[in-house]
Amino acid sequence: MFSRFSTAVVRPPARNFANGLTTVALGVPDVDLALTQHAAYCGALVRNGCTLVELLPDDRYPDSTFVEDTALVLPDRGAILTRPGAQSRAGEVHAMHDALIPFFLNAEHIVAPGTLDAGDVCEVGARAFIGVSHRTNSEGARQLSAWFARHDVSATTIDIRGIDGILHLKSGVTALDEHRLIVIDALYDHPAFRTFDRVCSPRGEEYAANCVRVNDVIFVAHGYPQTHRLLLALRYRLEVLDMSEFAKMDGGLSCLSLRF
Ligand code: CIR
Fold this sequence. Notes:
Order of helices and strands: EHEEEHEEEHEEEHEEEHEHE
Radius of gyration: 17 Å
Bound molecules: citrulline
Number of helices: 6
């Protein structure tokens, strides 16, 4: 049974959202449209069983709407705050820490010289994959693996620094359920994934590999019809959400919430 979530931490984009980091050339995001898309995303979380913990927008951190990167949670077991790999995002963890304390009294921390963005972590039941990326270093991955081990989760590290077009591991692989992943072509044959059923994200639709399972549905980005058909054929229920403004800032569906 895939984890069921009852809570999601979210944070609307700040007015200076367009000043955040990005590696893609999709144009400047429209912050009002981003706010509308964010509200629709929050509505979908609520419709699918989550109570929201809504952090206030903070223009000191233009990337702070991407809350998922700042912490990892094992529902009912524990939480760990990350140490984001981009200096401009380092301070984002404080608000997340305050949000998690009522739920997880003993939240732990990734510490220097480790860096870790939780977008690099793909959890599948009692397994986890940790991407070593341009944000997450080997020491961050080592600290997180040790934390997972203390919670009976077995972690495997995957170096994604040579893979073009993905910022984080989860830009290229998502768990659809405990047995099945959706994976971009460049990661499809990775030995770490061979024991899973895998769906290869269609060519040209790689962005849609960053979807997110929320209780009984898969949130998937609007505009990727081949991916939608594949998932529907496998009998998943979909919530299709417009992500155009977040995609311009390298953000996907998973990074807009921290679910537990
Ligand atoms: C960044 O570069 O950090 C943000 N603009 C995007 C972060 C997206 N996070 C994620 O995919 N987990």
